[in-house]
Please model this.
Amino acid sequence: MATYTPGKMIECTIQSVPLAKGPKDTIARLMRRDPATAKALRAGQRIRRQTTPTTGRGGRVWYIRPRCGKVVKVAKGQSWQMPYTPDIARDLESVASYLSVK
Model:
């Protein structure tokens, strides 16, 4: 990780899928840093905000909040690009055995 400079685009590819929930969640969190994925998540958030159904309960407006869509899927062979920042160094090190980083 010492060779990467902040702001440099890195490409990560999943070599093997972890069995434990923690590393899977870490990989999914890193995948959501991809600019295209982040854009899709923002678009979904905007659509949910615009189309949230409401109902009346006790004279008040209640919002029925829809769940967020799952944009990323942790599977072998999935790859994504993201800008490197120092705050993700420890996450990358913790899942380095499951990823190849270029």
